[in-house]
Every structure is written in C-alpha cells, then in structure tokens.
C-alpha cells in the first residue's frame, strides 16, 4: 500500500513566544512515559503544490517519476521523518497561569549531522469538526533553536509553555515539528494542519467555557467554503483571492480584539517570505459574528501561506491556510554534507535537493551549491542549468578536502529563467558554536562535559580543603607534644 503525500519539505515557522523557556540536554536513548512518536495523519493527501511523493509502508519516500538516474537521487540523502520526536508533559491537567513542562527525545537517524535545527510547537484545543478543519490553534512558536544532532544521535529536550489566563476550558494538544535551517522539514510538515512530528494531550479545566475566536470552520475563498485539511487549493497564475474569515463572540460581553492577517510566500518560517500584513481592532457584539474581508490580487506563481492571529487579552486564536498559484517558482528543498568535521584526504559529499514549488510540471533555471570556509575560500562547488521539475532533483559534488575543517558554510541558491534568485539557504557548520549552545541551555547531568568539569573542580577543591585540615591538625599535634 502506498500513501501519497505532498511533501515540500522545506518550511519553518519562526514564531517566538516570550512565554517559553527552552533547554536541551545530553545524549539519551530513553523514551519518556506515554510519549507519542510521529503522530501525523498522512491518510489524506496533504497536498500543498508540487513535490508529490509516494511513501511505502515503512514511511520511506518512493520517487517513481524522477528523471534522475535510478542509482542515486534526492531521497538517498533527504529522508522525511529521519529526525524523530517523542513528547511528554509533566501533568495531565493545568490551570490558567500554570507552566506546561514539555520534555522528550529527538533522534537523528541519518548517517550525517543535522545542524541549525528547530523544534516548533503548536498548541491546539479540540474542535468538533476536526476531520475537516483540524483543531482550534491557540499558539505557535519556536520552542528550541540552534540544535545540532550528530549522526545517529539522540538527545533530551525540554521547554515550558505558559497557559494564558484567558484560555477556554477543554482538551488540548501540543504538536511538535522539527526543521533545519528554518526551511527543511524533517519531522512533521509545519505549514499543514494535520501532519505532526509528535503530539501530546492534556486538559485545562478552566472556568471559561466560551470566548471570542476565529471561526475556523467557516472560512471562504472566492465564495467557496474552505476545508483546512483538504488538498491545497490551486489557482491560475495572476489570480485574485478574496478571503472572508468570521470572528465570533460567544460571551455575554462585548469584546474588543486585535486581528493580524499575514500572507507569506511559501510559508511563515522566514521574515523575507512575508508578502503583506493587515492589522486592525474589531468590536465584537454579544453573540454575533463579524467577517474580516481580505483581498490578494494578481498573485505571482508559487505556494502561499495565510495566517490570521486574533488576540483577546493574553489569549489567541490562530488559523493557517495554504494555497498554490500555478506557474514556475523554483525552490531549494534540502542540503548538507554527508560528514562533518571534514578530514584531510577523506572523501566527502556536498548535496542538495531542489524543485519547482507548484503543480506546474517544469521550467528552466540554474542551481548552485557551494561549500566555503569561514574566510570565503571555496572548498567544493557544483552548478546545474536546465529543466527544473516539480519532482525533487539532486545536485551533488564529490570532493576530498586538502586540510581539516571544523568550520564551514554551505550556500545553496536557485534561480529562475530570468536569472532572478528565487530562494537561498546558508548553513553554518561550527561545532564550537554547537557546544556553546547545548551547554548554555542544558540542565541535565548525563554526558554534558561542562558538568563533568564542574564536578572535577568540586572534587579538587574538596581534596585541597581536606589537605589543609590535615596539615593544621598535624601542626597542632606537634606543638602540643613540644609542650
């Protein structure tokens, strides 16, 4: 049995909440109790424009239609789900103002290191219409950043999420995703409403049963009702999209809320993806619904992500919707090194995956992937000019370094037929920075070198103190004997 899943595996939402505390610990192979692994729902086609990929029963991608040589392709290097997450919370129920302590294990099953990783969290309240529109999202943020996972490494992680005072009573979930370089998806698809890397449930028995929120079950686009879990809606090149988003007030008091609407090219992961922002206050009458109308005209080719955030005090209601506009919009999908640090005389590979990011079958462009040292000197480079397909294609450079490298940068660029740079990602390999990041946020003993160092200092100080005491006792005894 094959499951068809549209995986444009490069997106990352850069949502940073001021109410999060994050920690990354040492190595571990333990799994927290009741942890949920890879809680996703690929049973429906989670399309988003382009990159249609089949998965076998073990979740391995099968690229049947690729024009690349069969002996090697993109999926020999990029494996969706190759970073796995387990997740647990410290309690079953929380009150408004409590901290939810989230912990778990992240595992890199690749034979190469993953650098500049992020764990992203969505917090959701159960929705009766979950099968069509997923759960009510109330928060999203980057929980952990600057993560390095060495090949086949597992590490603990931990962060806190504070329950808002204005939260509604209900059953909740925290969904987790793992991305690299704020673009490459390795666990879950952050920009979709039903493909999660891990999922954990808890309850909030608040006294507030009703509130003001976005009515995610009744969005329309160009007069057609949106089902947020459906395949990505496709529009013609240059299309106009007229969105209507209803706000509802279920309480017996008028509510003044702030609504921020954002349209991003591809996804919400990077600030440079932002196309347009609208923000305004709305007065919601008791028991009434008010629609927010947004018009996006003459859209260029590519995949888009719409996000609306309604704020009521410290409580939020969030909706994300993805759609595609036909045409040619090339984009990089994944990149890296098959080993690091690099050793003099040992062969290595620089690799990248790329494609067109819409349903449009192909276009012509140029792809360049470069490896440099920190002084800008080239270590390896590969260029390609020609057809860029909707399926992932591989670009690869085999090289043998002339010296050791503990620091290096990968620059991956893609251009359209006019020579316009449409997407670029820079990856910085620096293990000294990784050590600083991991120890700065770690509170675990485990195999953390800084803890061993502290312990050694304490032992030496203890021995020194004991030596001083013994010396004093010996001197005192001698003087007593002399008397």
Summary, kept brief:
This protein has 483 residues and is mainly β.
Broad structural category: mainly beta
Largest sheet: 5 strands, antiparallel
Strand percent estimate: over 45%
Count of the domains: 4
The CATH class of the largest domain, by name, is Mainly Beta
In percent, how helical is the residue content?
A: 10-25%
DSSP, total strands: 29
Using only C-alpha atoms, the radius of gyration works out to 26 Å
Helix count, DSSP H or I runs of 4 or more residues = 3
Q: In whole angstroms, how far apart are the ends?
A: 96 Å
Question: What's the mean pLDDT score?
Answer: 80
User: What is the CATH-assigned architecture of the largest domain?
Assistant: Sandwich
Estimate the global geometry from the Cα principal axes: globular
Identify low-pLDDT runs.
1-66, 434-459
- Reported by name, the CATH topology of the largest domain is Immunoglobulin-like
Question: Layout of SSEs?
Answer:
Blueprint: E1 3-6, E2 20-27, E3 52-55, E4 61-62, E5 83-89, E6 99-108, E7 114-125, H1 130-133, E8 136-149, E9 154-162, E10 170-180, E11 184-187, E12 198-204, E13 212-214, E14 220-221, E15 224-225, E16 233-235, E17 241-249, E18 255-265, E19 274-284, E20 289-296, E21 302-312, E22 315-325, E23 330-337, E24 348-356, E25 362-372, E26 378-389, E27 393-399, E28 407-415, E29 421-430, H2 431-441, H3 449-482
Parallel strand pairs: 16-22
Antiparallel strand pairs: 1-3, 2-9, 3-4, 5-6, 6-9, 7-8, 7-10, 10-11, 10-12, 13-17, 14-15, 14-17, 17-20, 18-19, 18-21, 21-22, 23-24, 24-27, 25-26, 25-28, 28-29
